[in-house]
Amino acid sequence: MKFMPEELPMGLKYDLHLHSQFSDDSLIDVRKIETISKKKGLAGVAITDHSSLNGYQYLKRHSAEDFLVIPGMEVETEIGELIGLFITEPLNTDLVDFFDVIDDIKDKNGLVVIPHPFDKLRSNHLKVDVIREEVIRQYIDAVEIVNSRIINKRYIYEAVKFQRYFDLAKTGGSDAHTHWEIGNGFTFFESSDNDVIYSAEDLRKKIMNKESMSYGKKSNPIVHAFTVSTKWKNKLFYKK
Question: Which H or E run contains 15?
């Protein structure tokens, strides 16, 4: 399953949803992310770990100037998950109320992104049907269209309809928890100069101006088994 044109125009690709070893269900060594990403043609990534900014902070310190590393976190609310992108400091993971989490993201200069929406195979997808329309229009900045871990393509079509109805910005990401998933989904920005280097603020503005596109392909569903086994192993053998 692919969600992209036969040939991409000139532009830059960013995987804006992936998890490093600092998420308890990820096998990705943060030290390998830049090398793998560049091989996949990515100009940068957002590290969106579940519990901390440690992965982002490490990669930011050790990455080259031509590779953009964006801070983010994926956090749980009582009605499903949200991603805070471009946050200036770690989010408060003790918060579970939807509005409290949104306020926390906004207070830290972040964009509120709905990840893997409508994916009924995940209990942690955001239950958008219980949120009033005016709340979505006021507080949600973007919706993730292509998430490479979505198994049923119908959920991606539903995300497209949702994004168009509310006129939200689009993001795309692999939701990678293993090295070989990195770059399977990505956010794309057209540019006449493939050598241009965007800053995090440049990308933030482009997303808010709705200049981003969401493209990619589905990852092999077997990756979900690796996620589950990794999470259980960490629970059994490692202390927080």
Answer: strand 11-18
